Amino acid sequence: MADLADGDLDGAARRIALHQLLATGSSPQATTAQLSLGLLAALALGAEREHTQLAARLGIGSGPPRWPTDGGPPSWSLGDPMLANATRALAAEARAERAEAVRWWRQVAAQARLGGAGFAAGVAAAAIQRLS
To answer: Which residues of the chain register pLDDT less than 70?
Structure first.
């Protein structure tokens, strides 16, 4: 994970590391931190089915999510500014700060559109609608 967070991995190596985080987070025995990192990896990879399952396990969309209210460690951005903003949005949701969460989800949506990450843009749009 340190290589991801430092931005040391690109291309295929980055995708392999993200898939490893996704697999760990998808385990039935995953901790909250592993679920959270798996969710972020699914967002980055555009893995809709896995993202949906992990979001449900974290309680996203059914009240404040099981997410650290401080956003988690900086390494959770996995070296991606869009994911850093997603962690901020989820932390704001966990603190029940809906307006702040919407602000961060709007940033995620803009970054996703600019980066061609259609799935992430859709997740952000759904979160904005859910929280507004």
So the answer is: 1-9
